[in-house]
Amino acid sequence: MQENFEDALKAVLVHEGGFVTHPDDPGGATNRGVTLTVFQRHFPGADVDALRGITDGQVANIYHVDYWSACRCDELAAGIDYAVFDQAVNSGPSRSIRWLQQAVDAGVDGVIGPETIRLANAASASVAVERMCDERLSFMQAPRGGRQWTIFGRGWARRVAEVRLGATALAEGRPINAPHPPPQLNRTLRLGDTGNDVRVLQAALAVPETGRFDDATDAAVRAQKEEDGLVVDGLAGQRTLRAIGLSPLASHQASRSHQWRAKLHTCPNNDCPSTTSWTRS
User: Fold this and answer.
1) Suppose 73 and one of 64, 81, 189, 274 were both cysteines; which one would form an S-S bond, judging by CB atoms 3.0 to 4.6 Å apart?
2) pLDDT at residue 182, as a whole number
3) Average pLDDT per run of 10 along the chain, which is 281 residues long?
4) What does the DSSP 8-state code read for residue 182?
5) Between the CA of residue 159 and those of 25, 64, 272, what are the distances in Å?
6) pLDDT on residue 171
C-alpha cells in the first residue's frame, strides 16, 4: 500500500547501516544499503565520496524505484507489501516476487503481474508473510555451502524475525514499530575487561551479566567462536562481535541489522542474500 512506504523504508534502513567497504562484500562500497554500482546507475559518474554523502532524498528515491515500485508494493495488501519490500532489498526484486508467488500459490516466474497481485490480495496476509519468511530463511542457509550462515546467520535470522513481526502487525492493522538497532561494540574484549561493553556481550551470549569478562564469559566466547568456525581463543574481536550482531560492520545486512550483505545485484547468478549486514576475529 502506498501509505506504508515511509514506515517500511524506516524499518528497512534500521538494517542497512551506514557507509562501509568490506573486503568480503561482493557489493563493494555501500552506504545505507545502496551499493556504489546501484548509486552510479541512478547518478552516472558518481564516485565513492558521493556515495558516502548520499542524501535522504536520494536514498528514498532509489529504494522506491528499485525495490518498492519494482515489486508493485503500492498494489499489495498491508503487511505483504513490507515483507516483499524488505526481501527485495536484501535479495533482489525477482527473488522476492518468487517467494511471494510461492506463498500465495501463484505461477512462479519472478515477474509480478495482475494475477500475482490478485492472489496476494485474496490471501491471508499473515499466512503469506509466514510463508515468505520461512522461504527466505531456507534460502539464507544455502549460499556457499552454508558458510555465510555459519558466520552471519544469527543476524540474518534476527532481521527476518523482525520483518515477520512488523509485517504481521501491518496485516493486523497495527504499526510496524521499526526495530531499534542493537548495541554496537567497537573494541576487542578479553578476560579481565570490565564495563558496560562486557555486560552487552554477556547479554548476547546469555551468560550472567556481571560487567566483568570472567571465566564464564571466556568459555562462552570460545564456544561461540568454535560454533562460528573462527579461531578459538578468548578474544571477542570484530569477527566474533559481528557474528553475534554486536559489531558496527555486523549491521550490514546485508542487514545489516547484523546481516552480511551480499547485494543480489552484484552476486554471481543472483544466488546470495544481501550483505550489508557484518565482519570476523
Assistant:
1) 81
2) 60
3) 92 85 68 92 95 96 97 98 96 96 97 98 96 93 70 78 92 78 78 90 84 93 83 88 67 35 36 36 31
4) P
5) 18, 20, 16
6) 94
Residue 178 is given by DSSP the state P
Question: What b-and-e string marks burial along 136-171, b requiring 16 or more CB atoms within 10 Å of the CB?
Answer: bbebbeebeeeebbbbbbbbbbbbbebbbebbbbbb
CA distances from 199 to 115, 142, 183, 212 (A): 52, 33, 11, 7
User: What's the pLDDT at 275?
Assistant: 37
The whole-number pLDDT of residue 151 equals 66
The number of angstroms, rounded, from the C-alpha of 182 to the middle of its chain's C-alpha atoms is: 13
pTM of the model: 0.69
CB of 250 closer than 8 Å to CB of 258: yes
